[in-house]
Write a structure and sequence with these properties.
The protein has 107 residues and is mainly beta. Helices cover 14% and strands 41% of the residues.
Amino acid sequence: MLELFINKIKDEYVKRALQNVREFFNDQPVLKGNFKFFEITIGAAVSNMKYPHNLGFIPKDVIQLSVTGAGSLTWNQASFDMNYLDITTTGACVVRAFIGTYKDKQL
């Protein structure tokens, strides 16, 4: 959540503009939670490769942005743990993704 010290602003126009900015950013899915960007290069086909994530929790969500290279990739999310992601590929590839856990106040 984006925190701004709006209550300290005297100018009502500036205050409302910053409230709009805060509402916009707080409605963005990637910002509703704790996500980290990863770019992972894998040189060959692998099965259940453990990749350290350093998030401090077990990630529940993967927002995959792209996979390039000859291989395809599978996220073995049921095998994610406090320290590692679990990945299987059919060949060499590079994957880019946001990984973390989505949070919404209604959940």
